[in-house]
Fold Iodothyronine deiodinase.
Amino acid sequence: MVFFVLLPRFLMAAVMFWLLDFLCIRKRVFFRMKEQEDDAVDPPLCISDSNRLFTVESLKAVWHGHKLDFLKAAHLGQGAPNTEVVQLEDQRRGVVEQNADIADTVVVYIEEAHPSDGWVSTDAPYQIPKHRCLEDRLSAAQLMRLEVPGCLVVVDSMENSSNAAYGAYFDRLYILQEGKIVYQGGRGPEGYRITELRDWLEKYR
Ligand SMILES: *[C@@H]1O[C@H](CO)[C@@H](O)[C@H](O)[C@H]1NC(C)=O
């Protein structure tokens, strides 16, 4: 059942990837996207010329992402799934951030979008293999912690319950209030819009 629901969007993505492997098309698409980007807050979508997009591993990753998104428990306006996460060692909690007066921030590190033994990307700043145990995941998350100083970082359990409940793969933003989901961002990377989150918080103020 899930298979047939997901098939059309998966095939669309596959065709997109196939087309983007023609450099002339890739250049044109990304040129167009760059022109439309007016807000520097959102991380830009970037693919270098040297990485092939249409591969078995990339298609597996896209399928995985669509499936998680389709089966997620998290929906706007509904109760926020309270999934299990694991704390990193020796981390001070509750450090002040931009919106610390109205919101606590937490980063839940799930899995690698581009593991060195999966959908490899030479653009990735780190070469990290798929996590085989919680220790692998915790040590990879230590690197992430350096990227987000002042923000609590926790990791998904090895059952990947947060990733599944929130359809988080590749990356996704949420705002929770009193146990409810009040903002649900789109699937990253295309739907990962920090500006949307910022606007929501500004309106809330
Ligand atoms: C959780 O995700 C990892 C990838 O980081 C994968 O290797 C593992 O098999 C997944 N666990 C389950 C229970 O699906």
Remarks:
- The longest strand covers residues 152-156.
- The pocket of 2-acetamido-2-deoxy-beta-D-glucopyranose is lined by residues 111, 130-131, 158-160 (CB under 6 Å).
- Residues 22 and 126 are 26 Å apart (CA to CA).
